[in-house]
Amino acid sequence: MVILRKKALILLMVFVLIAGLPAGQIEGAASGYVGVEKTELEAAAPAVPETTAVAAVLLEPTSNKIIYEKELNEQLPMASVTKLMTLLLAVEAVEQGKFKLDDKVVTSENAWEMGGSQVYLEPGEEMSLWEMLMAIGLQSANDSSVAVAEHIAGSEEAFVQAMNDKAKELGLVNTNFVNCHGLTADNHYTSAYDMAVILKEGLKYPLFRKITSMKESELRGGAFKLWNTNKLLWWYDGADAGKTGWTEAAKYCLASSAERDGLRIICVVLGTSEPGSHFRESTKLLDYGFARYKAVNFAEQGASVGAIKVGKGQADRVEAQTAEKVSVVALKGEEKGFESRVELADHLDAPVRKGQVVGAYVVTKGGQEVKRVNLVAGDDVLKTTVFEQVKRVIDHVF
Questions:
Q1: Which residues contact 3 (CB under 8 A, 6 or more apart)?
Q2: Exactly one of 70, 108, 117, 140 is catalytic; which is it?
Q3: pLDDT by residue (tens digit) across 275-302?
Q4: Is 83 a catalytic residue?
Q5: What angle do CA 265, 271, 272 make, to 5 degrees?
Q6: Residue tagged active-site, from 83, 251, 312, 371
Q7: Does the active-site annotation cover 100?
């Protein structure tokens, strides 16, 4: 009887103790964390967020690591986010020397007839290719998109075929383009993952990054103001690229990129329901990615990591450079223990071509390879003539 009374007393004391604790501390008591705020636990291990987007993905582009996904391969309309592929093809054409930014682009009747977002081009109106690209990237101008497509490929139809060819080249199986601007059309779709890959490809080009990171600009001598529709450029720390989209069919969409402390994350949300929700959902997902992961950076793209002797060449050495950024992504708390090594050829014979693979930069952890990046020749080294080789020997001897 005494024992039962003691047990009852103990139970009563425990009940009183728990009843007097705040709700967060009661949860902590049940899980063994008495006195620890729930928010502190969440900061240590952020909960996987929920999103109202129909489909979404977080992609770390250097490792292609998917940090977050929701229906990442579902085929959905994407509205003006389409223009990321339009910009990608235009920028590639400029980088390849096929077109110049000061080229004059003439507005056709077809471009003039485009509705939706536009810069109100008139038939026959001329603008530089640079101005047209700004109108696409900032104002999301449908008329400029068609004008640029016609300028580069001769017709919008030919340009759209090039868009689909590029999608296939990138290995995208859930994307099909019917136009270059994103207005609603049957069989015009992408997936969250595919669009993340398109943005990743665009970010390889400085011109693409410049256009998509601009907050504002002007046309027609300042008579027409351009404001970037991607408001994350103002609101979100590290945001530096992206494209918005909206139609009744696609709802609100956004593909964006942000970088902090060497960690870049690409975020795509498709099909969010109300105004501003594409920014809200992207912010939530990006916060999650940056809270959980950290970049471990070893070398920037183009970094020289050694030199290789060259025989029978007009130069006797060539610099070995990283073909891309050498970086790995790791969960916070697990970023230590990575090691790196450089694997280089001992000797090369001329000719050596700039960009020729000459070795590898290898990152390991626990003896296991986790990253391998090609090392390439930094310059051309032409082969010397027989006369030059003889003269070099004579100079060396005497």
A1: none
A2: 140
A3: 999 999 999 999 999 999 999 999 999 9
A4: yes
A5: 80
A6: 83
A7: no
